Amino acid sequence: MLRLPPFRYHRPSSLAEALELKGEHRSEAMYVAGGTDLVPNMKHRLFEPAHLVALKGLPELRGIEERDGSLRIGAAETLTDVAKNKAVLEGFPALAAAAGHVAGPQLRNSGTLGGNVCLDTRCTYYNQTAFWREALGFCLKKDGDVCHVTKVGKKCVAAHSADTPPVLMTLDAELVLAGPEEIRSVPVRDFFVADGIVNNQRLPDEIVTEIRIPLSSVGRRQAYTKLRQRKSIDFPLLTVAIAADMDASGRVRSIEGVVTGLGSRPRLLTGWSEIAEGHALDDEVVEELAERAHKQCHPLENIIVDPEWRRAMVPVYVKRALAQLRAA
Predict the structure, then answer these.
(1) Which residue range forms the structural domain that includes residue 104?
(2) Distance in angstroms (rounded) separating the CA atoms of residues 140 and 299
(3) What digits encode the pLDDT tens for the residues 259-270?
């Protein structure tokens, strides 16, 4: 049986108190919301904080409402609440679909949208017990100096495996982060970096408080598809999110596709505008877009599924997402 390391659990009543607790305990403390990612990682001894600062009960991180031209979603709202919320379902159906496809219902009832955005990267050689990792030889991401995927020690290539960020990118969403000194906003498309060890710009003492999606994105046609080994529980082997603005005649004014599950951050598919803008999403355009995506995506052996098969699935799932777009 895997056991948790010893820690002290703190339940602040306000955002200011949470930031104060983190400042008091510094590197010995970590934030926890739903705990669906952090707790298993603690059992694997990937993290061993002496203090956990709970965020889920903070009123500043709750609520889903329209405000100042955006749909504001509190970072501590559960994935179930996001998936079932009327405003999300009507305005941003791809986000509701993505939130509703994370893991299984028990985990969605606990896991939060902010936690999914900040999900730790995953790798076959990282997400294992301490005994397993020590027997193989620790990896670059935790306690070692060599990446077992690339066989060199210069860069970690653990995979970004969160479902909602690709959709949020296509909707021009932004994150609000509160730190001890300032509150700042970061577009989701700029939040992630190509580093499997720490793949986002959130500072250790910062808290993601809310996600804002501009209401101007409501009119976009949206689609989301996900490849995984089973239809529940499993992390994605690939996700595809697409959003497009169409004119009255059904021609594409703008289109954007994002894939994840392949590298350390979500990847924006390039060159789609040149293919699709000014054209209807007919079979020929769909085929060209899928082929363009296939050329850009090269999965690594960071997940225990054949990378060539995963790459072969890229155009399949892009076509499925585009089929949703055409039917919208």
Answers:
(1) 59-119+159-217
(2) 19
(3) 999 999 999 999
